[in-house]
Write a structure and sequence with these properties.
Blueprint (H helix, E strand, L loop, with lengths): L5 E4 L3 E7 L2 E6 L4 E5 L1 H9 L4 E2 H12 L3 H17 L3 E3 L3
Antiparallel strand pairs: 1-5, 1-6, 2-3, 3-4
Helix pairs in contact: 2-3
């Protein structure tokens, strides 16, 4: 995972946020559901438009007053997990 790469939602996903702080993504190709916690939902919503990891880190620091090193590690792990589950992909534009 490159922190400077722009990522976007996979076109094969559907997202719903049944209540604030809780979300579910359906990966249409696999039929698997993936639950997202509050921070992952926040990042998911930021990925409505192609966004790079560095921008996501800055937003997490701003929103949650997280230490930079912790935010960077958490965002990298989240993006890697979302990529692995084919919920996001590198942006094409």
């Amino acid at each position: 995972m490159n922190i400077n790469t722009h990522y976007q939602h996979s076109s094969a996903t559907v997202f719903t946020e049944p209540e604030p702080g809780s979300g579910v993504v359906l990966q249409l190709d696999t039929g698997e559901y993936h639950q997202l916690n509050a921070v992952a939902c926040y990042v998911w919503n930021l990925l409505e438009t192609p966004t790079n990891g560095a921008s996501l880190v800055a937003k997490i620091i701003e929103q949650y007053s997280a230490p930079e090193q912790e935010a960077t590690q958490d965002v990298a792990e989240l993006l890697a997990s979302l990529l692995d589950r084919k919920l996001i992909e590198p942006a094409t534009n």
